[in-house]
Amino acid sequence: MSKISSVNEFVIKFANVNGSGSASANQMFAKAIFRSGIPVSPKNIFPSNIQGLPTWFEIRASAKGYLGRKAGIDFMVAMNPQSYQQDVAEINSNGYLLYDSSWKREFHREDINILEVPLTSLVVDTFPNPKTRLLFKNLVYVGALSYLMNINKQVFIKLIEEQFKGKEKLISPNIQALEIGFNYAEKNLKDACSIKVQDANLTDGMILTNGNNAAGLGCVYGGATVCAWYPITPSTSLAESYKKYCDQFRIDEETGKNNFAFVQAEDELASIGMAIGANWNGARAFTATSGPGISLMTEFVGLAYFAEIPVVLFNIQRGGPSTGMPTRTQQSDILSCAYASHGDTKHVMLIPADPKECFEFAADSFDIADRLQTPVFVLSDLDIGMNDWTCPEFEWDDTRTFDRGKVLSKNDLDTMESWGRYLDVDGDGIPFRTLPGTHPEKGAYFTRGSSHDEYARYIEDGVINARNMSRILKKFEGAHKFLPKPIFKQETNASANGIIYFGSTEAVMQESLDELTSLGFPIDAMRIRAFPFNNDVWDFIDQHESIFIAEQNRDAQMRTLIVAEGDINPGKLISVLCFDGAPITAKFISDSIVDVLSDTNVSKTAEDSK
Amino acid sequence: MTYIVKPVNHHPNLEKNDLGLTRRDYEGTISTLCAGCGHDSISAAVIEACYDLSLSSDQIAKLSGIGCSSKSPSYFLNQAHGFNSVHGRMPSVATGANLGNQDLLYLGVSGDGDTAGIGIGQFMHAARRQLNITYIVENNGTYGLTKGQFSATNDQGSKSKYGEENLFAPIDLAAMAIQLGAGFVGRSFSGDKDQLVPLLKAAMKFKGFSLIDIISPCVTFNNHAGSTKSYDHIREHNESVSSLDFVPIGQEITTNYREGTKVDVPLHDGALLTLEKLSKKYNPLDKGQAVQRLNEAEKDGKVLTGLLYINPEVKDHAEILNITNKPLNQFTDDELCPGSAKLAKINASLN
Fold it and tell me: Do B78 and A460 touch (CB under 8 A)?
């Protein structure tokens, strides 16, 4: 039997039963590879359920830094008889299957290497309690893999010690389970696996973390003091991360009191209402949710837009529509956020591509919201939000100060003859606001979602209302100055064709571009990071004959937005759409593009098109 | 829409309060509600209460939802910031505002449609959280702004202006608030200023959720014979459980109640509520009894008014959450941002 042979370049998948404690063992395995200096991308593919259903954990290790999901499994650890059939079918030819051979099975695949480890039998004497045995069994396969793939056992031991710090009793049984697996493989599976991990230094200056953890931290760094939220997968861990870091950094040392507010609201309507109320008072506040929550929040989003109250909303997108696929990823809320709420509304969106950008955009979003006095959506997704990514370390410039925008102080008001809440003094469409309690006689006004004039007075005069609406649009049109610019994969454009992509698709783009180049279809690439679009977006479209747009949704929502906002000829924009709930793969993008380019008269390079 | 601007001139010898302000200084714009609307009497009572307490308007935030009631914050306290939010969602906005700055006095103004209909969920949760707010419901049993549909507080069998009978049992907001743990629950009548003003003063000084459900007849759509929220009906069926005096800190108690009927309730800041029990049996500190009496009154077709329930020992929302005393909107950049050194440690923990 031939064996897949590779060093630091493979995909391993764990098929488990959810609720069996497998995720933390699998996480540990991923971290061990990361600690060995190899970039890694673990992806937890889990059901919307607490116990008993199939769950998977895919880890791609890549010295080349290709960290997107890749179809085809090199090594399968099959721990769930319920899903054996589909799991075994997924293994690449000459790949490996490790299963619990306490119960022997036939798998009817002649082209794969089957590694039998009697996991349950091995631990039955050491761990007589069936519940703990279930947990330790996971460590046994981790131990076997440590031997099989040549990952330093000490790395695992250190990880176990770190994980159970404070619960020291658990350290030695975990190590024991690890050793059992390691020793069994050493004795029985010598030279059985040719996929190896070799120490490298490719993760220096990198961290392994998820976007929700990063965004919660970013909110702390961005000065958010109020988090009002309602539990919803996959955004819950963002709110919890904010709380975790507030508990570290925002407890008053003298009084033990909280210099922050963390409120689990009764629903999404209340959570956005609270965030708006706090921001109205000048306390930076946010909410975190996913698609269904955005649907519920839209009335309030319109209020914040029209009454010009800053507020930050994190949308960790999941599979829609309706309840959809709560534990799968998509980029399918682009339009529902860009134009959220009735009437003419348009909203600022920041679209991070990895945890580092989640941290940065979270912190930036509060400055942007305060500067523009408007809702700001941060559009992440389940893949970035809940999976750990290998990404550069977080950075912070200590000279940075918060941009609170145009807020009048008591002194400002003292020196002013008159003031109008919605008066465009500076010509940028952004008015000055006051906070309640600032001045005993000046600056009070009535905030409202009904039509109002420059002095915040209720009006029903259509001309005044149109004037106000035009001013708000002006503000929006100048917003790009404060937003992150697109990022280009190339220094100068070299192809007649370009691809536009955004968000978590970043993980696969370099791999796809390299593949396209090797196939003779080099292509330029631009990543959009914010809406309203920067002029660079229009230039990029203008400079290419054909533009592909890669999106993880069915309806080509970003394409629709580009066509609508840029008055672009739709015929020029070709969609590459993945919407099965699994993160998009490089191959999917490359294949789609090759299909189009090899089939038509579209020129391959700028040179050819001349 | 206000076309008429209120004249600012007033009599030079108007009485002044401790801040040197007259009642006129607490007024708002001219009301655009129908002449005779109960809501305007409530606005006048709010003005009176704020004047009496010598409150500084800029330290008050007025929040409302949508409807006739929710327009009324425009008609008092011009120097206070106001927020006319979305229908039924004032409680959440007020909760957020309170989290942002605990130092302000929050005055929530809502109606029976806004609170008992679309907004009942938020109302209940604000009560349950013990949000520090004076929550006024201007209760007329009807949707006035959309021309007279029944609201959820309208009594079963009560007739609409067009003769239609209400088929459903009413929601008693006061009973509900008591059951949810609200610290201060009163009911009053817009036409009874003597009862309403001290009740408002006490509610404003109370730290925690204080509800005053005020029956406030709608002269246009719900003031006819056959309505149970008309001026005539309420005057005939009003049963007051207590007479109330609010005594700020340091002031001598001058009220003279009959021996054995007086109850003193100290509030959070040391001020005193002095109650005369008009009914011997009624004890406003007894939650179970309050609910029972409300149920009995409903059966008898009576409207129980006065201070129905008070629990002076409640902790408010911010206190329950252990939030620091300094308003969260007053923290500086340095106090909020942990800085790069701490970030380096976090980075180290993630590799």
Answer: no
Residues A141 and A79 in one domain: yes
B 134-153 residues with CB < 8 A to A? none
Residues with Cβ within 8 Å of B305's Cβ and at least 6 positions away in sequence, in order, are: B186, B187, B188, B189, B192, B195, B238, B239, B240, B241
* Residue B291: CATH number of its domain: 3.40.50.970
Please give the Cα distance from A147 to A370 (Å, whole number).
Answer: 54
- Centroid of chain to Cα A373: 25
Residues of A in contact with B99 (CB under 8 A): 225-226, 228, 261, 263, 274, 277-278, 283, 285
What CATH number should be reported for the domain holding residue A576?
A: 3.40.50.920
- The verdict on residue B165 lying in a domain is yes
Domain coverage including residue A17? 6-196
Chain B residues 64-83 within an 8 A CB cutoff of chain A:
73-74, 78-83
pLDDT above 80 for B1: no
Of A260, A444, A450, the CB nearest to B58: A444
Query: Is B147 part of any domain?
Result: yes
Domain count of chain B?
1
Q: Record the tokens describing residue A345, joined without a space.
A: 């509304």
Say which CATH number the domain at A67 has. Answer: 3.40.920.10
Residue B267: per-residue pLDDT? 82
Domain C-terminal end among A346, A363, A392: A392
| A170 and A220 assigned to the same domain | no
Which residues constitute the domain of residue B169?
Answer: 23-349
**A92 Cα to chain B: minimum distance (Å):** 31
Query: Does the residue A204 lie in any domain?
Result: no
CA distance A443 to chain B (A): 8
DSSP assignment string, A576-592: EE--SSSPPBHHHHHHH
Mean of pLDDT values over B188-205:
95
The proportion of chain A whose per-residue pLDDT surpasses 70, expressed as a percent, equals 98
Number of domains in chain A: 4
Helix (H) / strand (E) containing B90: helix B90-100
Q: Do B322 and A271 touch (CB under 8 A)?
A: no
CB contact under 8 A, A221 and B85: no
Nearest of A538, A515, A520, A517 to residue A528 by alpha carbon: A538
State whether A368 and A219 are in the same domain: yes
Question: Do A222 and A288 share a domain, yes or no?
Answer: yes
Q: Is residue A126 exposed (0-12), middle (13-18) or buried (19+ Cβ within 10 Å)?
A: middle
Residues 18-77 of A with CB under 8 A from B: 34-35
The answer for A 271-300 residues in CB contact with B (under 8 A) is 271-283, 285, 299-300
Domain presence at residue A271: yes
CA–CA min distance A252, chain B (Å): 8
Establish whether the linkage from the previous residue to A355 is cis, with ω within 30° of 0: no
Phi-psi region of A289 (alpha: psi -120 to 50; beta: other; left: phi over 0): beta
What whole-number distance in Å separates Cα of residue A218 and Cα of residue A239?
11
What are the pLDDT digits (tens) for B72-89?
A: 999 999 999 999 999 999
Task: Give the closest-approach CA distance of A446 to chain B in angstroms.
Answer: 4
- A106 Cβ neighbours under 8 A, 6+ residues apart: none
Indicate whether A495 and A605 sit together in one domain.
yes
Task: Give the model confidence (pLDDT) of A357-413 as tens digits.
Answer: 999 999 999 999 999 999 999 999 999 999 999 999 999 999 999 999 999 999 999
Task: Clarify whether residues A341 and A376 are in a common domain.
Answer: yes
Angle between helices A355-372 and A211-221 (to 10 degrees): 40
> Is the preceding omega at residue B91 within 30 degrees of 0, hence cis?
no
The verdict on A308 and A371 lying in the same domain is yes
pLDDT at B110 over 60: yes
Residues (pLDDT < 70) of chain A are 600-610
